[in-house]
């Protein structure tokens, strides 16, 4: 491959890595094209991309980017999963795929520049997704005014019961 071709690959991958909040280095030795295609489709549905890149080019591309911590992890057969929208969804996809495959494995990752080992990626995959977290947050935010209204309604209800009891006592006394 010519130098200009290599430079283009490096620049393209570097631009993608800069946009990604999550990058995961994986092993895929011995996998078929069909299996890799299935993995790519699953990762794309989770809001990411999967790339197989030569180790030297990958090492050069991630140097001086957010995911610089991964530059020494490129060896043997290396694939890189990049997560742009929801890092949890991409991590779940990778971990689930690794459970079903003897040939695929998660090596390490970088989340916004912070290094992660295989067990941390697995822990990340167990977190609720972005949509679920937003739903939980909205539920919590909605609970505060609902509880506030219920509290005041109960106070007013108690006051009305007391006034009604006083009114009945005065009717009986009269």
Task: Supply database-style keywords.
five-stranded antiparallel β-sheet; Alpha-Beta Plaits; 6 helices; alpha+beta; 174 residues
Main sheet summary? 5 strands, antiparallel
How large, in whole angstroms, is the Cα Rg?
Answer: 28 Å
If you consult CATH, what is the topology of the largest domain? Answer: Alpha-Beta Plaits
For the terminal residues, how far apart are their CA atoms?
A: 107 Å
Count of distinct strands: 5
Helix content: 55-70%
Strand content: 15-25%
Count of alpha/pi helices: 6
State the order of secondary-structure elements, H for helix, E for strand: HEHEHEHEEHH
The secondary-structure class comes to: alpha+beta
Instruction: Give the overall shape.
Output: rod-shaped
- What's the arrangement of strands in the largest beta sheet? 2-3-1-4-5
How many structural domains does the protein architecture include?
2
Q: Residue ranges: pLDDT <50 for 5 or more in a row?
A: none
| Corresponding CATH architecture of the largest domain | 2-Layer Sandwich
Topology:
Elements lengths: L2 H17 L2 E6 L5 H13 L2 E5 L2 H8 L15 E6 L3 H13 L5 E7 L2 E4 H8 L4 H44 L1
Antiparallel strand pairs: 1-3, 1-4, 2-3, 4-5
Helix pairs in contact: 1-3, 4-5
Would you mind describing this structure in some detail?
This protein is an alpha+beta fold. The protein has two domains: 3-127, 2-Layer Sandwich (Alpha-Beta Plaits); 128-174. The chain is built from six helices and five strands. The chain has helices spanning 3-19, 33-45, 55-62, 87-99, 118-125, 130-173, and strands spanning 22-27, 48-52, 78-83, 105-111, 114-117. A five-stranded antiparallel β-sheet has the order 2-3-1-4-5. Helix 1 crosses helix 3 (55-62) and helix 4 (87-99) packs across helix 5. The model has no long low-confidence stretch (mean pLDDT 88).
